[in-house]
Amino acid sequence: MIRIIRKIARTFFYQMNLMQKLLISYFLLILVPMLLLTFLTYAHVSKTLIRQFQYSSDQALQQTSIYLDKVMEEIESATDQIAFNRVLSDIFQTDTSDDSVVEIYENYLTASSLLQNVFTSDALYSVEIYIEGDSLYVSEESRGEQGVSFISPDCSYARELDEKLSGHSGKILYLAPRILQTGISADGIPVITGARYIKASPNYSNLGILTVNIRQETLNSIIGRACVLPNSISLLLDQNGTVMAVSDEAMLETYPDLREIIQDRLSGDSNSFTAEKETILINATTLDSSQWALISVIPYEEMLKTSLATRNRMLLIFFVISSLFYIVAYLISRSITARIRFLAKRMKEIQFDNYAPISNIVGNDEISDLTNSYNYMLNKINAYADSQYHLGITLKNSELKALQAQINPHFLYNTLDLLHWLAEDYGADEISEIVSLLSRFYKLSLSRGVDVVSLKDAIQHIEIYVKLQNFRFGDSIHLEVELSPDICGLSILKLLLQPIVENSILHGILEKEQQTGTISIKGYVAEGDLKIQISDDGVGMTSEQIHNIMDVSPSNPAGGYGIKNIIERIRLYYGSRYGLSYESQPGQGTSVTVTIPCIKHTDQQAIISQDDAV
What average pLDDT does range 244-253 have in this prediction? Predict the structure, then answer.
């Protein structure tokens, strides 16, 4: 199955052009990892944001509880100062039946001033004192007035408070929120009432009841500071679970089972619950001053909104960057493939005999290298075609010359033999020897039409040539040959050594002042190759002269034709790794080393047999 899928994918991939492959590679190698990285980053950021929101919620809850504790402690401290104030106790215990109106009014002003100086908290709406007093300042019922009020303890609300306080063991008894009816607001003012006894001095008996009415709106505003996200709410519950304050009444109505969830939170360890198919996070802390519970409720959806917004921004950035990358990748791939398409088009034109190279190559990249290689290949093809053309012409000329040379070659041999015998008849021994040597020289040169001879025959050809030159130059050339018998049977191209020896005589020894010298020939095998070293003690050469001799390019007209011919013959017949090497210095002679492969000569018969000898 995997092979089939791989084969189908490979077939589909091979059908696409290079530009499509580059764009797909861009998508797979860049876009997919970037998309994966975006989602992984979003998951990490989302978890981090939720943890940060939870931490921020907890910190806000703690700070709000500290501030709320401070407010409640201020109120409690103020009630302590009033409940045990001796001046107020003396005023309230004084019999006013014999006092004048002025004295009664002065006592009222003193009591009011003390109360107003003590209760300075902005959270308070009113302070009510339920105590016996003159009707000039003591009301029969509470009128919900703001500030300090004195009310008769015989009213129904005072009796209700006394009943509740009698069973309370703490300092202040906080009652459930209620609507305080006032003349200011027709709808009334929601307040939380705290009540405690005023103690008489010095026996600390109950003298009256002190109540403080705290604005619920103020507490709602304070605990609203614990809401760190929209649509989150915070609540203040007393020990009985009664809601004393809430940051948003409307939000509270959206969670009908929130009270049960909060009780589960207060009694358990988990702070994550599901209310009305919505997951919420609940944090809670306890106020030190009143042991009330301050609770914040945060929907997970609100926490996720920020992370979702972060995700959307990341996706937007991803798509913007991806679009820019795609445009850049498209332009780059188009630029690359345009050059490749042009190169492929020019390569196809070769089959229509268009061998023109590409001009104006720009850049040094791989495509430029391919174009340069293409141009090099075309130049080589053109050069090879020209070479083959000229080689064909040369071959035809050579065949013609060879045909002419092969016309009755025995005519030359027989003529030379005739001259040899005539010279002997007339007693011209020297002429007879020269003619004999010349006959043998040409027999070795022609070598029955074969191109390869044995090394032994090649050396014999050199020896005959040197003898002929000594007849001409008065035995001024001395030849030394050093060959081991095991290499004499190796093959060598004919007429390969003679031009080198000829150069040694004509351009080496004869250019000396004495015009005498020695030529030594040594043969040996090294690293599987046959090496033949031809040395002379002639005038030598400079490095520039050696370079001109070894340069076989058509642009170099200098140098000897014979040496260039030898170099080309060796490379054509044996390969480019074989050839000649020169070592020479002016005045110290020249050494030429011929390197060819070790090939055993198949024809062991000497070219000049016994019946051919002169």
Answer: 83
